[in-house]
C-alpha cells in the first residue's frame, strides 16, 4: 500500500496509539504532522520516523481550540504542500462516578475529545474542499462510547458524540469525495493500564512479551501497533468508498460496529398512553432490552 502522495495530521501522536498510527502511515510513505502537548515526546516521535526513512514535523499544542486546529493544517501545508488525512486521536481521562465528577472533569475531557475532533476536522475539511480532490477523516472513538463504561460519563459521552458526528459528516462530505470514519481501538496503553480488570494480563505481558489468546481474540485487545493497520487502510485510496463506518480493532480482531437500529416495534391507534405501554411491555419490549457495558469472557473476569 503506497501512501507516498499523502500528507496526514495525527493528533496526540507523541506516544501510545497516536504514535503507532503515525509510524504506520509514515512506513507506508505518508508525510506526517506529529502533535502532542509534550515537546520532548513530539520531537522523539519525529526523530523515530525520520530514522526509519519517513517524513514528519512536530506541532506542540493542546487540541481543542480552533487556533490549534489551524496550526496543524498550516504545518502540513507549509512543510509538505497539502493535506490529505486528518486523524483525531488526542485524548485525556478524568474518570469519576457521576456524583463525584466536577464541571472541570467533564469540560476537560469533552473539550479535548469532542471539541478537539470538531475543530480539527472542520479545518481539515476547509483545506480538502479548497484542494478539490477529496480527503480522509479518521476519528478515534472507543467501545466506551458504544456501550458505556462505569466512571466515564465524560469520556463515554464524548466518544459517542464523535461517532455521531462521523455519521453526519459522511453525509455532508460525500459529494466532495471526503470520507469520514471512526475507529474504536482497544490496546495496552497508559490509559488502559489503569483498568483493574486488565492489570493481571498486562503485568503478565510485561514479563512474557505477549498477551494470551483470550485477550487478543475474545476481548480484542493488543499492542498499539495492532490498531494501526485500519487507520492506514482508511487513509488509502483502497478505502475511497468506505465512509460513515465505526470499526472495532485490537489484538487479533477487526470488526464493524452496527449503527443503532430499531429492535422492537409496536403500534397503537391514536398513540401510546402509559397504560397502553404497560399492556404492550411484556410481549414486545420486556425481552428486547439492550445490555450496557462491555461483556468480557468469564476467564478474564475470574482472573
Automatic annotation (TrEMBL):
<dbReference type="InterPro" id="IPR002347">
    <property type="entry name" value="SDR_fam"/>
</dbReference>
<dbReference type="InterPro" id="IPR057326">
    <property type="entry name" value="KR_dom"/>
</dbReference>
<dbReference type="GO" id="GO:0016491">
    <property type="term" value="F:oxidoreductase activity"/>
</dbReference>
<dbReference type="Pfam" id="PF00106">
    <property type="entry name" value="adh_short"/>
</dbReference>
<comment type="similarity">
    <text>Belongs to the short-chain dehydrogenases/reductases (SDR) family.</text>
</comment>
<keyword id="KW-0560">Oxidoreductase</keyword>
<dbReference type="InterPro" id="IPR051687">
    <property type="entry name" value="Peroxisomal_Beta-Oxidation"/>
</dbReference>
<feature type="domain" description="Ketoreductase">
    <location>
        <begin position="6"/>
        <end position="194"/>
    </location>
</feature>
<dbReference type="InterPro" id="IPR020904">
    <property type="entry name" value="Sc_DH/Rdtase_CS"/>
</dbReference>
<protein>
    <recommendedName>
        <fullName>Ketoreductase domain-containing protein</fullName>
    </recommendedName>
</protein>
<dbReference type="InterPro" id="IPR036291">
    <property type="entry name" value="NAD(P)-bd_dom_sf"/>
</dbReference>
Amino acid at each position: 500500500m503506497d501512501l507516498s502522495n499523502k500528507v496526514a495530521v495525527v493528533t496526540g501522536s507523541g506516544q501510545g496509539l497516536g504514535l503507532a498510527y503515525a509510524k504506520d502511515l509514515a512506513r507506508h510513505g505518508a508525510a506526517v504532522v506529529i502533535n502532542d502537548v509534550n515537546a520532548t515526546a513530539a520531537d522523539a516521535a519525529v526523530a523515530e520516523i525520520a530514522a526509519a526513512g519517513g517524513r514528519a514535523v512536530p506541532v506542540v499544542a493542546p487540541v481543542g481550540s480552533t487556533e490549534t486546529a489551524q496550526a496543524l493544517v498550516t504545518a502540513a501545508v507549509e512543510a509538505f504542500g497539502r493535506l490529505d488525512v486528518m486523524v483525531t486521536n488526542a485524548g485525556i481521562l478524568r474518570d469519576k462516578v457521576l456524583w463525584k465528577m466536577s464541571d472541570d472533569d467533564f469540560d476537560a475531557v469533552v473539550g479535548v475529545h469532542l471539541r478537539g475532533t470538531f475543530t480539527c476536522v472542520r479545518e481539515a475539511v476547509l483545506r480538502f474542499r479548497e484542494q478539490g480532490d477529496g480527503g480522509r477523516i479518521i476519528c478515534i472513538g472507543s467501545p466506551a462510547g458504544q456501550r458505556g463504561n462505569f466512571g466515564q460519563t465524560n469520556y463515554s459521552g464524548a466518544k459517542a458524540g464523535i461517532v455521531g458526528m462521523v455519521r453526519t459528516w459522511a453525509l455532508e462530505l460525500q459529494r466532495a469525495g471526503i470520507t469520514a470514519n471512526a475507529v474504536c481501538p482497544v490496546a495496552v496503553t497508559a490509559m488502559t493500564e489503569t483498568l483493574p480488570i486488565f492489570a493481571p494480563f498486562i503485568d503478565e505481558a510485561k514479563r512474557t512479551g505477549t498477551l494470551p489468546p483470550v485477550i487478543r481474540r475474545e476481548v480484542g485487545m493488543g499492542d498499539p501497533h495492532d490498531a494501526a493497520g485500519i487507520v492506514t487502510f482508511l487513509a488509502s485510496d483502497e478505502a475511497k468508498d468506505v465512509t460513515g463506518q465505526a470499526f472495532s480493532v485490537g489484538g487479533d480482531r477487526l470488526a464493524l460496529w452496527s449503527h443503532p437500529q430499531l429492535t422492537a416495534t409496536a403500534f397503537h391507534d391514536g398513540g401510546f398512553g402509559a397504560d397502553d405501554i404497560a399492556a404492550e411491555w411484556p410481549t414486545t419490549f420486556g425481552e428486547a432490552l439492550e445490555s450496557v457495558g462491555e461483556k468480557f469472557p468469564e476467564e478474564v473476569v475470574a482472573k
